[in-house]
Amino acid sequence: MTSRTKQGALLYLALMGLTSGVVGFRACTSEPARGAAVSAADPPSAASQSHRAGSRPSTTAGSPAKPTTGTQATTKPSPQAQTVTGMVVSTQYGPVQVSVKVTGSKITDVKTLQTPSSDDHSVQIAERATPVLRQEVLAAQSAQVNTVSGATYTSQGYARSVQSALDAIGF
Hints:
Layout: H1 3-20, H2 46-53, E1 81-85, E2 89-91, E3 94-103, E4 106-114, H3 120-140, H4 152-168
Antiparallel strand pairs: 1-3, 2-3, 3-4
Helix pairs in contact: 3-4
């Protein structure tokens, strides 16, 4: 098939798509438009893949650029939330343990389950350090956080418990 014949066939198909309200091909190219069906026998080119990386919801011809309703191939299911309990880490002043909530590929919450409680001073240190450590984990999206000054053992235990929870789910 010559280049001119291909262009004519594609133009014909594009016009047919316009009359039915759906545009299936880009004019004058052999690449399918965003949202168009592509067969496994005809893999997309690198150029068309780069367009899909930043693709927008499908629109119909002649309508304003707004998402269409109904089910679409580009619709992703909402990610499942997983809450995993980290290991109990024994420190010089007592145990530290957390649970970590992960939604998709994001750490969404960290809850402190155990902190050193052997004496009032250890309790005060843990009460001051754990909210800071929680915010650090959420900001860093990992267990690689700074040690809270004056709470070295609690900080290390907290980070190790977070890491064990993340390891358990392959994060």
